[in-house]
Design brief:
- By secondary structure, the protein is α/β, with parallel strands linked by helices.
- It has a single domain, classed as 4-Layer Sandwich (Metallo-beta-lactamase, Chain A).
- The protein contains 13 helices and 16 strands.
- The strands form three sheets. Strands 6-5-4-3-2-1-15 form a seven-stranded mixed sheet.
- Helix 1 crosses helix 3.
- It is globular.
C-alpha cells in the first residue's frame, strides 16, 4: 500500500504547441515505484530522462504509460526506453486489430495488412515504442478499463469501445498537416482578434456540445487512491471518455467527485474536451465562491508560448469546483502528498486566478 506520492509535470514545447510529460513516484513500504505517463515530443525526452535521474535518484522506471498515440505524448518516450531501464510499457496497439476491424471500411482496396501499415505510419511515434520495447525485451500491455498499473487503475477505454468505435475513426481522421508560415500568421491574427466576454462565478461559458478527435478520446485515464486522496490522469480525454471513466469508476466503488483531489486538466486546457455536465459528473457541482475549505489541485500542461492553452473558461470551471489550478507554462510544477519531501531548490508556484473575462 502506498503511503505518499509526487507528481511532476514537465514543460513541453518551445513554441506554441503543448504536450504532456509527467513523472510520478510513490512510496510502497520502504521502496519507491516510478511511473512515466507520457513523454511529450521527441525533444522532451532527454529532459524527462534527466529529471528521473536527478530528482527521483534512479535509472529505473517501473511503468511507462503512453496515454494515446499523438506525437506530443508518445515522442519523448523513446528516450526513456533507450536510456533508462523499464519494467513495463503500457500502450495501445491499434495496428494489432486490423483483422478485427477491416470490415468497417467499405473501400475494397483496404486489406487488413494495408490497414495495419497505415495505422503504424500514422502513429509512427507510438509504433516506434513497440518496436523498441520488443528490441529491449520490455513487456508491453494494453491499458484497458480495469487494468492495474502499479497503484493506478485504468478507468477508460474498454477494449470493446477502443477496438470497435475508436480505431475505425483513427483511419478516417485526416493526416496532420505541417503548418505554413502564412497559416500561422493568419491563425495568430484570428486569435488576437477573438473577443472576450465577462464571466462571474455563477455563470459558466463552456459549450454544451463539444467533440475532440478519436485519438484524444482513446486516452488511457488512470486513477489511484492513497488514503482519502485520489489522483486522476486524463491525457487528452474528451467528454465521452471522461463520462465513461466516471461510469466505470462508479461501477467499482469509486466516486470521483469526492475522491479525485488531484486532477490533470485534459488536453492542455482546451475547450473541446470538457463541458459543464461532464465536469459535474467527474468532479462534482460548483462550490460557493466564498468556500474556503476547497483543497483540490489541478495541473495543466501548456507550452510557454501557447496563446490558446489553457483556456480561461476551462481553468475557471475547475476553480468553481474547488480546485487550485496551476500551469506549466515553461516550468516544472510538482505536487506532493504527506510523507514526501520537497527537494532543495524548489519553491512555491503561483496558481491561476479566476478570470473575470474569458474567451468568447
Amino acid at each position: 500500500m502506498a503511503s505518499g506520492i509526487e507528481i511532476d509535470f514537465l514543460p513541453v514545447g518551445e513554441g506554441e504547441h503543448s504536450g504532456d510529460a509527467i513523472a510520478i513516484r510513490w512510496l510502497e513500504g520502504n521502496e519507491y515505484r516510478v511511473m512515466v505517463y507520457d513523454g511529450g515530443t521527441k525533444g522532451s525526452g532527454p529532459a524527462l530522462v534527466n529529471h528521473v535521474k536527478k530528482y527521483f535518484n534512479t535509472s529505473h522506471v517501473d511503468f511507462v504509460v503512453n496515454s494515446h498515440p499523438d506525437n506530443d505524448h508518445a515522442g519523448g518516450l523513446s528516450a526513456v526506453l533507450e536510456e533508462l531501464s523499464v519494467g513495463e510499457l503500457w500502450m495501445h496497439q491499434p495496428w494489432s486489430y486490423s483483422d478485427e476491424i477491416s470490415h468497417y471500411f467499405r473501400d475494397g482496396r483496404i486489406t487488413s495488412e494495408s490497414l495495419e501499415r497505415r495505422l503504424q505510419e500514422k502513429m509512427s511515434a507510438a509504433f516506434a515504442l513497440e518496436v523498441l520495447a520488443e528490441k529491449k525485451g520490455i513487456p508491453v500491455y494494453e491499458p484497458f478499463a480495469g487494468s492495474q498499473i502499479g497503484i493506478f487503475t485504468v478507468l477508460s477505454p474498454t477494449r470493446q469501445r477502443y477496438v470497435h468505435e475508436l480505431i475505425p475513426e483513427f483511419e478516417k481522421s485526416p493526416e496532420l498537416r505541417k503548418s505554413t508560415s502564412i497559416f500561422d500568421a493568419v491563425g495568430r491574427f484570428v486569435m488576437e482578434a477573438a473577443g472576450f466576454v465577462a464571466e462571474v462565478w455563477t455563470g459558466e461559458n463552456l459549450p454544451e456540445s463539444v467533440t475532440t478527435s478519436a485519438e484524444n478520446e482513446s486516452s488511457a485515464v488512470l486513477f489511484a487512491a492513497i488514503g482519502e486522496k485520489g489522483y486522476l490522469l486524463t491525457g487528452d480525454a474528451g467528454v465521452d471518455t471522461l463520462s465513461a471513466s466516471s461510469d466505470f469508476a462508479r461501477s467499482i466503488g469509486i466516486d470521483l467527485p469526492t475522491r479525485a483531489t488531484f486532477a490533470q486538466v485534459p488536453h492542455h486546457g482546451g475547450r473541446h474536451n470538457v463541458s459543464t455536465d461532464t465536469l459535474n459528473l467527474v468532479f462534482g457541482q460548483p462550490v460557493a465562491e466564498d468556500d474556503t475549505t476547497a483543497s483540490k489541485t489541478a495541473f495543466v500542461s501548456a507550452a510557454k508560448a501557447a496563446p490558446r492553452h489553457p483556456k480561461k473558461k476551462v481553468t475557471n470551471a475547475f476553480k468553481r469546483r474547488g480546485f487550485k489550478v496551476f500551469a506549466t507554462k515553461g516550468s516544472v510544477i510538482r505536487h506532493y502528498s504527506t510523507g514526501m519531501t520537497l527537494p532543495q531548490g524548489w519553491g512555491p508556484v503561483e496558481q491561476l486566478p479566476f478570470y473575470a473575462a474569458v474567451e468568447e
